[in-house]
Amino acid sequence: KAGVTQTPRYLIKTRGQQVTLSCSPISGHRSVSWYQQTPGQGLQFLFEYFSETQRNKGNFPGRFSGRQFSNSRSEMNVSTLELGDSALYLCASSDRTPSPETQYFGPGTRLLVL
Amino acid sequence: AQKITQTQPGMFVQEKEAVTLDCTYDTSDPSYGLFWYKQPSSGEMIFLIYQGSYDQQNATEGRYSLNFQKARKSANLVISASQLGDSAMYFCAMREYDYGGATNKLIFGTGTLLAVQP
Asked: What secondary structure letter does DSSP report for A25?
């Protein structure tokens, strides 16, 4: 099976812009979670989507949003970018039925905000 | 609140030797799951091993084993016969539980940077 894929791998934006990141889970996985990794805050959970519904949300401002499509692919959007949004954004997928299983991560998208 | 603590920011080990990476956790839930991930410089998080709180035996996966001491709330990762390719950041993580049971939210430690020397 192909692993989790994320696009783009690298991105440079300027403050105030918005960005959309994409994640394709492992075939058959219906749960997609997003994490932000920064040197200062470490790995932090953003949100989880399962069957097109947000199941769980981390402690991030409303500028961070996401969605999931019927084919389980997920996108996350960050509006009005700030310098502090520079980070590695990781997506993870799992088969959530009947209970949460091991999550498998993609290679991440490195976002730099100038 | 659940918490993962990794007290070793960095470690060196000689090639072919075994190394133990420490992880302690804090939770009031009787059910929990513990994970170890490896993150090379490329950034991808690679799943290594999982231990459930009710598992009777310590988890093993090839050269990786988990020294699970429930009473001490520790879940140390043991890598046997270290290889140069093991040089990476290693994260211990715990699955968060809420009123609905297990979630897919992982709480991560700060990580341990392992350098394997030839």
From this structure: P
B9-31 pLDDT per residue, tens: 999 999 999 999 999 999 988 88
Shortest CA gap A14–chain B (Å): 23
Is the distance from CB of A95 to CB of A29 less than 8 angstroms?
yes
State which H helix or E strand residue A60 sits in: none
The rounded distance, in Å, linking the Cα atoms of B51 and B74 is 11
Residues B37 and B75: their CA atoms lie apart, in Å, by: 13
Query: Which pLDDT tens digit goes with each residue over A21-40?
Result: 999 999 999 999 999 999 99
Nearest-CB residue to A43 (from B46, B91, B98)? B91
In this structure, are residues A16 and A22 in contact, taking their beta carbons and an 8 Å threshold? no
CB burial of A17-33 (b: ≥16 within 10 Å; e: otherwise) equals: eebebebbbbeebbbbb
Report CB contact under 8 Å: A105, B103.
Answer: no
**Are residues B106 and B3 in contact, defined by beta-carbon separation less than 8 angstroms?**
no
Give the residue ranges of chain B where pLDDT is below 70. Answer: none
Q: Does the structure show a pLDDT above 60 at A99?
A: no
B53 contacts in A (CB within 8 Å)? none
Residue from B45, B46, B55, B108 to probe the interface with A (highest A Cβ count within 10 Å): B45
Q: What is the DSSP string of A17-54?
A: --EEEEEEPPTT--EEEEEEEETTTEEEEEEEEETTEE
Judging contacts by C-beta atoms under 8 Å, the chain B residues touching residue A58 are 105
